[in-house]
Design goal:
Blueprint (H helix, E strand, L loop, with lengths): L3 E7 L7 E9 L10 E3 L2 E6 L2 E5 L4 E3 L4 H9 L9 E5 L4 E6 L9 E6 L4 E6 L6 E5 L14 H12 L6 E5 L5 E2 L1
Antiparallel strand pairs: 1-2, 3-4, 4-5, 5-6, 7-8, 8-9, 9-10, 11-12, 12-13
Amino acid sequence: KSNSITKVTATGSALVPYQYDQSFIVGRGLACPWSLVSRGTAHYGLFYDGVQRFTGSQFTSIGRGRVDRGILDSINQNALAMAKGIFNFNSNEYWLGIPAGANTSCSEVWVYYEPTDAWSYFTFGSNFGHFFEYSGSGSVTIDSLTGAIDDLTGSFDAAYFNTFASSILIGMLAGGIAE
């Protein structure tokens, strides 16, 4: 079942809660678990064969060769779990932060702009640390956040899946936050 997608069905039984059906897509496993994000019924992620959009019934390559090669050739294979994807709902963009070269946390950001089917690419001189969304509201401002970024990461990561973010933040390794 390596590098494949397996259908899992809830059985309702406490003894055997799930039934793992046969792999129905072989060779296209999700390379980076935190790269997977959803926008309605569309899901975006970095799979072993490149960046894909999955609608529940069909995969569409959005990396289309050149971007896929750029990402897969530069990502640190020993730090795949550190790659992170987010979807910026305000601008219809899928952001993918990856650890490149020998870096062990995000050092490159690839941005897919859905309306025009175009990519942008940003590279940083070193690891920039954590990559997460911040849900802006009238009651909490970025300036009011206290503590080091290491203290805040868990709360952002836990909440990030359930929010429509107004800001994309980068947690710098030195403890600051860049917006």
